[in-house]
Amino acid sequence: TPRWAARIGADAYAEDAQDGVVKVKELLVQS
Q1: Rounded to an integer, what distance in angstroms lies between the CA atom of residue 19 and that of residue 31?
Q2: Of the chain's two ends, which shows fewer C-beta atoms within 10 Å, N or C?
Q3: What is the pLDDT along the chain (31 residues), one digit of tens a residue?
């Protein structure tokens, strides 16, 4: 995999992971 593609993929994964954590925290607060 080209290094630039791996970096873009890692950045996108990190952003998705952060969004997932925020959603989980919101669900925990609501429950």
Answers
A1: 19
A2: C
A3: 689 999 999 999 999 999 999 999 999 999 8
